[in-house]
Amino acid sequence: MSEKQFEDFLAEKLINWGAEHFYKGYRYQFQSPDKGNSKKLFDALCARRAGFITIRQVEMPFIQVGGYKLLIVLHSEDKGEGCSENFISHIRDVVASQQSEVKDSCLLIIHNSMLDTLINSAENIAQPGWVWHPLKIKEALEGEIDPLNDNKLVTQCLLSHRFEQIVDDGATMFGFEELFNALVDDGEISFHEIALLNDPLLKGWDSPNQIANRLEQNKQMYEKLDYITHHFPTSLEEKLGEEDFSPSFVKKYFDEQDPEAWKLILELEACLQEQKKNKENLLELEKESISEGKLLVRTQADTKAGRRTKNIIYVMPEGKSTFELEISFVGGKVEKKECKILNTSQPSVDFSNPDNAGGKRSRITISGNYYDTAIFFTFRVKRDKSAENHNFKVLVVKENEFYLNSIENSFLIDPKRQLVIIQTEENNLQIAEHGREDTLTENAQEFKNSTVGVIDFEQIASESDNVEFVVKGTETQLRFSIEGAVATDASSLPLLFNQERFNKLFSNDYFAVYNKRKNKIQLDNHEIAPKGKRLTLLQWEQELLDNNSLYCPASENLHVAVADIATSYPELSAAYSTYFAYLANNNTLPSLSGWDETYQELVEHVVRNYNEALRSIQYDTLLSQSQKQLVNIGFAEFNGVEYITPYHPMVLAYHLYLVQRVVQDESSSFKHLPKVTLSRLNAQGLMPFIYDPTNEFGYCQYETDNSMWLRIVPHQETSYGYVQKLVRDKVSEFRDAFSSLFENGERSKLIINSINNGQNKEVFLGLVDFIKQYKNKACQIHVNIYDDEIEYCEFDRFSDTASYDVIKAEYGLNKGRDKDIADTVIDLLRTRLTYSKFENEKLEDGTFKAHHYAHISFFKNNDKVQSRDRNVNEELSGVVAEGLLAGEASSSEEDSYSTAFGLKGIEYEDKPHLQIAERLNGLIKPARKPDEQYSRSKSTALVVSGKFRKLLQCAYSSSIWTTIIDPKVTLDFFDNDKNVVLIHYSDNYTNSINYDAITVTEESDLYKKVLERDQGGIIEEFNAFNGEWLLKMITANDNERKEKRGIIGAYKFVNCLLNKSDITWVPLSVAEMLRVAGNIGLKMSESDFSKSNIAGNIKGAISDDVLFVGFKQETMVLLPVEVKTGKKQTHNKGVQQAKELKRYLEEDVLKGDSLAAQLYRGLFVRQLLMQIDKYKLYNLYSDNYFDELLACRESWLQGKYAIGDLVNYPEGFLVSHVENDTFFEPAFELKENILKIELPISNLSTFIKTPLSQLFEQQPEKLCHINSEYILRDSTLLVGNQIQPKEDTSINVDEQKTDYNFNAEPHAEKSEVNLAVEVDVETNETLKVLVGHSVQNQEPVFWEPTNTAKFMNTNSGIIGTMGTGKTQCTKSVVTQLQRNQKNNVDGKPIGILIFDYKSDYVDDEFISTTAAKKFKLFKLPFNPLSLFGDTPMLPIHTAAGFSETMAKAYGLGKKQQLKLENIILEAYELAGIKPEDPSTWKRTAPTIENVWDMFLEQEKVEEDSLYAALSKLARFKIFETDPEKMISLYDLVSGVTVIELAGYPTEVQNLVVALALDLFYSQMQKKGKPSVKGDFRQVTKLILVDEADNFMSQNFPSLRKILKEGREYGVGVVLSTQDITHFKTGDNDYSAYILSWIVHRVSQIRNQDIKSLFNKDDKTDQEYLMKSIRELEKHHSLYVDGDKKITKIKDKAFWELAKDV
Q1: In terms of pTM, does the model score above 0.85?
Q2: pLDDT of 624-664, one tens digit each?
Q3: Left, alpha or beta for 626 (phi > 0: left; psi -120 to 50: alpha)?
Q4: How far apart are CA 781 and CA 1227, in angstroms?
Q5: How far is the C-alpha of 1590 from the C-alpha of 1573, rounded, in Å?
Q6: Is residue 456 within 8 Å of residue 437, measured between CB atoms?
Q7: CA distances from 1564 to 1377, 1426, 1581 (A)
Q8: Sign of the alpha-carbon dihedral angle for 671, 676, 677, 682
Q9: What beta strand segments (E) does 510-657 contain?
Q10: Residue 626 phi/psi, 5° resolution?
Q11: C-alpha 505: how far from chain center
Q12: Cα(1651)–Cα(1660) distance, rounded to whole angstroms?
C-alpha cells in the first residue's frame, strides 16, 4: 500500500503547476474551513522546504517553485500554531516590496480568515482553472486511475459524483481525500471507502449516465441503511422490514454486536433483489369472516406494516360456547409451520391446517371454546418476506357483555397484557347505553357497566400519562388503557384511487363514513382527519347531499334540487333520489365511496338517464328553463368559485367507465399504476373550456386534493404553478451553460427580463427556489419587469413585508428543510435580488421599444385569447385510451392557433362519458347565454393570433435566451423565424397535447459553433430528435458531445436502412421518453415510462439511445438502437441493452389488454405524435411521409393496436462508431438477432453533416455496402404467432437489389470512368496522385509527394502478392506523376527511373501513355566509373564503391575486392586521372571494357568469381563502351526511363541496379538542393525498383543512402515487392525510411511488421490489421499516409487511366 498522503499529492500538484504560473511579488491564498486540513497541507509543503527567510525575527519556510521562492504561511489565531492576521498582512507587504532576502519570492497563505485585506489582495489558487480548484483536482485524480482496470469508468463516475457533491456543498478539494486514499492503494476505488455499498455489477458498464443513476441509487440505499442501523440498533428486523428486507436477510447481513459489518459485506444488488423479491407476488390478506356473530376489525396503523397487523373484536352470539374465525389469503399458499398462536388466555384456541384447494387462496380457521371469560390471543403468519407477515390480535367476547359502539373506531387489542387500548381525544368514554356518569379517581379503578354509562377520566389524564380502568360486565371484565388519538390525513381522495385498499374497493358495502360532527373520515375502523382544502371539499360535498342539491349557484333562487327536475325528467330525478338516499343512509359521499356492484348500478342509472335527457334536446332551438336546469346539473359555486362537483353526471360517468375497466382487468394493473399516471385519471379533459358570461370563458382544472372536483378558473386567473419550477430550472441551466459569466460568485450579476407575467408570483418563487438551491453561492440577480401597465407585483409585496415570520409563512420557508435556512434565504433575497419595472412601449411603426439587455427573458404570451364556437365532432381530438386520458388538442390555420376539445375520428357510441362530453360541451353556452340557440357548433374553443410576434422580437434581440411561457401556439409558429433556434421545449405533463414552455434564441451562431467544434452537424436534426440536447451541448464535455453525435449519426444511418420499407417509422430519443417529462421540474419518478414506475422486472442495463417505432396497418413494431462510440470492443453488453429495451417496452409496458397497458399505449403514441410534430416542423421527412399514420391518429391514441415483429429481420441494432484508425470499413454481424453494425468513426461526420433527406436519396447499400438483406423493403409482420397478411404492394424487391461488387473486371468498372477527370480538377494547384478511393465513403485518396506537411519524404512502399493489382497500382502512380508534373514546384519536370525486373513496364500501352524511354541491358548509355562530386580523393572512393558493389553482387572475397579496386585505380591512372588532383577528374573515365582488358593483361589471370563477374559485365556489353555515346545518368533520367532487367541472371540484375544507384547517388549529391515554397518541396527524380525483394536482400549501401538523404535533393524512392518481410534484412530496415505505404494482400505478415509499418503497438489493432490485409480483394489496399493514417482504398488502376486518354 502506498504511503503517499493526499496533502503530499496536493503539494506536488501546486509545485509543478506553480513553476509556470507563479510570479515574484505575487500573493496567493487558499481558504480552508477545516483547521486540521490546513495544518496537514502546511506540513506537507514544509516537508519540501528549501530553506527559511527571516521576517521580524521569525523564520518563514519557503519552497523552490520554478525560479521563485514560495513562502508558506499558516494562519491561526491560536498562539504557536500559526501566524495572526496582522502578521500575515505584514508578510504580504514585505513580499510585495521584493527587497533583500525576499527578492524573487512570492507568498502562499493557508487560512480561514474573512479579512478582506487577506482575501482580496491575494489570488485564490482554488478559483476556477487554478491548481487547487476541485475540478482540477478531479482531473488530476483521473490520471491516477489504472487505465487497465475494468472499473475505470465506474471510478471516473465516482469522481464526478463526489465532485458534484463538493460543488453543491461549497466544499474544498479535501472532499476528494477519501477517494484519493482509495485510489493510490490499487488504482481503484472501493465502494465502502466512500460510504457506498459494494456493487461489483457495475464492473464493465459503459454508459456514464446509467452508472451515475446507479451510484445515486446506491447512495440513497446506503444512507437509509446507515440511518436505521444508527438510530434503531435494537429494532433492525422491524425497521428494515418496513424497507422490504426479510428477517433472514437482516439476520444474515446485520449484526447487533458488530453494527458496522454490513458496510463491508453487503452488496447493492443483494439489497435490490431482496426488496424486489419481497414486493413480487406477495401473500395478501383477502378477508376475515365468521359464520355468525359480529366482527370489528381495525388496523394497527395506516402504514404498510401497520395494515398487516389487525385488531379484531369477535362478538359471539348468546348461547354459543365455541367460536370460529376464518382468515383467507390470496397470492400464495400458507403452510401450517408458518402459523402460530401466541399470548393466548385460553389454551383451547387452535387453528386448522391451511386449506389451499384451488390454488388461488389459502384459508385458515381459528377456533376455541368460550368459558364465560374474555379470550385474548394473537394469531401470526410469519414468512420469509417481511411484507407477507401478518398478525391478528383478537379479543373474543359475548354479545351484550360490553357496549362497543363507542370504541369501534378507536380500539387496539393487546393480548400480551390482556387489555383494550382506546385511542381518543375525548376525556370520557361511554361504556354502556344507559347509566350514570362516574369519575375515574385512580388507575385500575373498576366500573360496572350495569350501573355506570360514562367514565370521565379528565382528572387522571391531567395528572398522569397512564390512564387505566376495568369495566365489569355480567360475566367477565375488560381492562382498558387510554392513549391519545392518532387520527391521520393519510387517505387519498377519492377513495377509488387509494391503491393500498384495492382489494376492498369493489367489495360489497365497502366505503368510508364522513362524520360531520367531528369532521373526520372513518375507514377500516380508523379515524382520518382530512385537512385544508381536502376537508373543505368534503364539507361541500356533504352540504350538497344534505340539501339534495343538483345545481348550487351563487343566487339561491336559481338553486336546483332533485325534486325540481321530477316533472321534466322523472327518471333522472328518481335515479338521483335513489343515489342520494344510498349515500345518506350510509353516511358516505361520492369521494368516499367504494365501487361495489350496487354502487355501480346506482351511478349507471344516473348516467344513463342524464345521457338520454341530454340527447333529447333538439338542435337549432333555444333551450327551455328545464333544459337549462338539466345542463347545469352538477355545477356549484362556493366562495365565489364555480366547480363541477362529484355529483356531476359527466364526472360520475367518467369514474364509472374507469371502474368498469378496472374490474374487467384480470391483472389488477390499476393497483400498480404509478402516481404520475394515476394523477392523469380525471374528467378535466372532457370539458377543458367552459363558456362564462362574465369572463367569456374559463379553464377546467382538477383539484389536486380530490380529483373528482373540477374547478372552473376564469381565464384571467389561469394557474401557472409550473412556472415556478420552470424559472428555477432555466436560471440554473443558464448559469451552468455560461458559467464563465458567474465565476465571481456573489459579485457576478444575472439579468432577467420578465415580460407580461402579471403579478410575477411564479417568477419570484422560482428565484426564491434558485436562491435556496445555491445559497451563499448565488449571484446578484436583477429583474426587469415589463408589462402593458405597471402594477403592484410579488417583488413589491416581498419588498414591503418587514416581518421575517410573515415572509416565511407566505413563501413556505417555515416547513421542512427550509426552516433551517429561512433567515439566510431572506437575507440573500434582500441583498442580492433587485428589480425595475417598465411598460411595453409601442412605437409608431407598430414595433416595440427595445428592452434592456438580459441574459434570459421569461415571456408570457398575454395576447388576448378569444373563444370561438366549434363543432366537437369536427375538431382534432386529444382523447387518449377511450377517454380515460382526455384533453384538448391544438391546430393552426395561417396565423391563428386554435385549441379545443374534439372527438373527430373517435367512436364513442358505447362510452357514456364521451357521449355526455360531446353534447355538454355544446350546451353550456346556450344554457348560460340568453337567446343563444343550441347547435352542433357551440362548443368552446380558444383561438389566439400570432400578432404577439413583434413584442416577442424585442425579447429575442435583448436576451441570450427567451423562454416563452404558455405559448398557446404550435411549433410551426416558429417555422417562419429562420434565425431563431429552438433550444428546448418541454413536453406537457397534463393531458393536453401542447407545450408548457418553449425556449428559443437568436444566438444561432453560438449553437452552430458548438456543433462545428465537433465537425459540424445540422441544428434542426439535433433539435428535432431531442428537445434538450442543444441546451446541454454547451456545457457537455467532449465525451458527452461525442455520445450525442454518435446517436444522431446512428439514427440517421438506421433510418436509411428502413426508409424504403412499407412501414412508417418514427425515431424516438429513448432518453427523452424515459427521462423527466420536460424542463418543468418533474423527477424521474414522475415520468409514465420510467423504469422505476412500471411494475416490471428490469434485467440489467437497458438501452437509452434510440427507438424506431414502426406503424403498419394496426400493428406497431419496435426496433431499439443501442449506440456506442469509442474504441473497438465486442460490445456484448450493448446487444443485451438493446434486447432489454425491446423486452421492457413490449413485455412490461405495452403488452396485453390490461388497463395499464392501454393507458401506456395511448401515452406512448401521444409522445410519438409530439415527436412527429418536431420532424414536420424541421422538414426532416417528405411532406406526406406521416400522412397515413396521422390519418389514423385517433385510433392509435386509443391504444387498440397490436405489437408485432418483423419476419426475417433483426429485432434491433447495435451501432458502434469505432475510433480505432485500424478499422476502416464497416462490419455487420447478427448477434442474438440484434444486427451489430460497426462503422469507422470517419463516417460519422458524413452522416451528421448530410441532411437526412439527402441520405435517403442514396441507395442504402451504397452507404456502407451493407448486405441487401438488411435493407428493409416489403415487410412481413408477426403478431403473436400469426403472420399478418400483407397489403398489396407494387414494390419489386428484386429490381431494387444492387450488386455492389468490387471484384469486377475492368469492363465492369463503369462507375469509375470519370475519376480521371476528378484528378485534373483536384490537382490544379499542387502535385497530387490519386492512389484510389476510400471504400468507406468513395472520397478520393491522394499521395502528395511535394507536400512536406503531410509527407516528410517522398519514399513509398507498394506491397502485394501476384494478382492483387500491385503493378497496376504502381503504373498508375508513375503515369499520374508524369501527367501532373506541371503541378510540381516551379513546374519542374520529374525524372522517373524504373528498374523493371519482370518486363511489366515495357508494354506498348504503358510506353505510349507515359512517353517512356526503355533500355535493355545492352550498352546502357552511362558509365558506372564516371566521377561526380568534389569529395577528396574521389577516384579512390569511386573505385572502392564499385568494388564493394561487385563484391556484394557476386560474393567476392576481401582480396578479390582489393584486386578489383587496384585495377580500377590503375585504369584511372592510365586515363590521366589522379586521385589527389581534382583538375584531372573531368577527363574521360575508363569504362568497364577498359577495366576488363586490364584484368586480362595481368601476369596471372585466375578464373575465379571476380573473373566471372567482370566477364559477364564485359561480354554482355551491359554498359556503353564508346565514351562519345555516354551521358550522365542523372541527365538520362528525364521523363520516364525504364531499364528492363528481365532475362538476365539475378546477380547481374542486382549488380546493374546497384551500380546505377551508386552512380545516381554521387550525381544526386552534385546536383544540389531543390526549390522549396512554404510546405512544398520540389520533386526532381523518382526511382522505382519493382520486385525489389532480391535487391534489398543484398544490402547495397546506395539504396539506404538515397532513401535516407534523397528528400534533401528532391529525390524519392518507390520500392515495390511482394511481402512486407522483404523490407528488413540482417543489416538494414528499409521500412524505417518509408512514410507512405500501399499494402495489398500478402501471404506472410507478422505482428512486428504491422507495428513498424502502421505504428501500432496494440495487439488487438495488430491482429485486426493482419486479418484485414489477408482478406483484401484485388485492386484493394490499405493506404498509409505520412501521418500513419490508414485508409482502405479501391486502387486507381493503370488501365483506368489508359482508358481515359
Answers
A1: no
A2: 999 999 999 999 999 999 999 999 999 999 999 999 999 99
A3: alpha
A4: 55
A5: 38
A6: yes
A7: 20, 13, 9
A8: positive
A9: 513-515, 520-523, 526-528, 549-551, 560-561, 635-638, 641-644
A10: -65, -35
A11: 40
A12: 11
